[in-house]
Design a protein that fits this description.
It contains 13 helices and 15 strands. By secondary structure, it is an alpha/beta fold. The strands form 3 sheets. The protein has a 7-stranded mixed beta sheet with strand order 4-10-9-8-7-5-6, with helices on both faces. A 4-stranded mixed beta sheet has the order 1-2-3-13. The chain has a 4-stranded antiparallel beta sheet with strand order 11-12-15-14, covered by helices on one side. Helix 4 packs across helix 10, helix 7 packs parallel to helix 8 and helix 11 runs parallel beside helix 13. It is globular.
């Protein structure tokens, strides 16, 4: 299979592991490979299998909808799409919200950038250092992570600001209050040198960047400065939305002092594996386009049916609360396990979104080889995790389905502790 993959797919299409894994079946929080080996899944298809593998409610919804109609496009009225949009608009916290469905987070962010630049008549965008927003031409241009930005060519003028990474950079030594004040002062100074940008796009917790985040309230403080020039705030909730952080349903709610964002983007987990993304915005912003548009596959009936079933399950079983109840102890368990390991720089996160940053012992230098070794070692013991980070991909990413049990959390933590002691001890 690996030979066939390499013969027909791009060289730049990344694969995990020296001996790449083919996953053929899943149930709950576990998956099986083509050889029949079982793994505890602590990465969920890059935070996409949000509730559980093979969730019966989603499988049933897909089967029943497939038996009626798979697709008709947005050129026709679509009951499941309208019903889901109504629910998401209510959940968003954005007044007079409109919802547009896409097929991915990349496409959602691309649409948000189109709306913001059109509404503001500016092609300047503020973005965060260490950020990731997708692989399209426009979203690559606002991605502040060299490892995921293959070109400097761009339809946008992007200006990068401080704040997304709390414990690296020129303000890392400051306490939270002073850190926020310094980042706000930097933003204000930057805005004094340029024409008013269209928007700031920011992940409340940076996903590909290694699950880094600023102090709570930073983006609320940013918004006070942005509002002086009418600059919009786009919250990229592709990885943080729907309760993953435990404390909040949306990641932006940790920064809500000055109200909700102007635009919110979402994708990944809400479809639990189906290809669903979308944009939520105030009506005046969403309706600013003066040309026709459609989405051939965004909002198609089968993905909407699956997403409605997944959202019902998420809310009825309080999976946000489970992320908080199981994720909090898991984070502390991993912090305790790593506290004496010289190769671990930081264990961070909230809810079921946890990052472990690795460095070369005795230095502050990233150790991507150690991250790769932990990834391999965990797989050998039956655990799948991810990796990321803007500093040479040296952070481990832990993001299991939100239905993770306390026993499964302990099982995964014990494996990670053993492997980290061997690699980073």
């Amino acid at each position: 299979m690996l030979g066939r993959h390499r013969a027909v797919l791009p060289d730049w299409l990344a694969l995990y592991y020296d001996d790449p894994l083919e996953i053929v079946q899943g149930e709950g929080r576990r998956v099986r490979d083509a050889q029949g080996r079982e793994y505890l899944d602590f990465f969920g298809g890059i935070l996409t299998t949000m509730t559980a593998h093979a969730l019966p409610e989603v499988a049933k919804a897909v089967t029943e909808q497939a038996g009626r109609l798979l697709h008709s496009s947005t050129l026709y009225l679509n009951r499941p799409m309208v019903e889901l949009a109504e629910r998401i608009a209510r959940l968003s916290g954005i007044p007079d919200a409109r919802v547009f469905f896409t097929t991915s987070g990349t496409e959602a962010n691309d649409t948000a950038l189109l709306l913001a630049t059109t509404h503001r008549r500016s092609n300047q965008i503020l973005a965060m250092r260490n950020s990731y927003h997708g692989r399209s031409f426009s979203t690559v241009s606002v991605t502040g992570n060299r490892g995921w930005s293959p070109t400097s060519l761009s339809p946008l003028q992007t200006l990068y600001v401080h704040g997304g990474v709390r414990h690296r950079g020129p303000y890392a030594h400051l306490d939270d209050e002073a850190f926020t004040a310094a980042c706000v002062a930097d933003l204000r100074d930057l805005l004094g040198h340029v024409r008013a940008p269209a928007a700031l796009i920011a992940e409340p917790v940076q996903g590909v960047g290694g699950f880094t985040s600023p102090p709570d309230g930073l983006y609320a403080a940013f918004r006070e400065v942005l509002a002086e020039q009418g600059v919009l705030w786009i919250a990229d909730e592709v990885q943080t939305g729907w309760g993953r952080t435990g404390d909040h349903f949306w990641g932006w709610q940790a920064h809500d002092r000055n109200g909700p964002p102007d635009i919110v983007t979402f994708a990944k987990g809400i479809g639990n594996g189906m290809s669903v993304g979308g944009v939520i915005a105030r009506a005046e912003i969403m309706n600013c386009l003066d040309a026709n548009s459609i989405s051939t596959f965004g909002g198609t009936q089968i993905t909407m049916a699956a997403t409605l079933a997944n959202l019902d399950h998420l809310l009825q079983h309080d999976l946000q609360g489970n992320a908080r109840r199981v994720g909090g102890p898991l984070l502390e368990r991993l912090r305790t396990a790593c506290s004496a390991l010289p190769g671990v720089r930081e264990v961070r996160g909230r809810g079921l979104m946890i990052g472990i940053e690795l460095v070369r012992p005795g230095t502050d230098l990233a150790d991507p080889e150690a991250a790769a070794a932990v990834l391999e070692g965990a797989r050998a013991e039956g655990l799948l995790i991810g990796k990321g980070g803007g500093h040479d991909t040296s952070a481990l990413r832990i993001a299991p389905p939100l239905s993770l049990t306390a026993a499964e959390a302990e099982e995964g933590a014990a494996i990670l502790e053993r492997v980290l002691r061997r690699v980073a001890g």
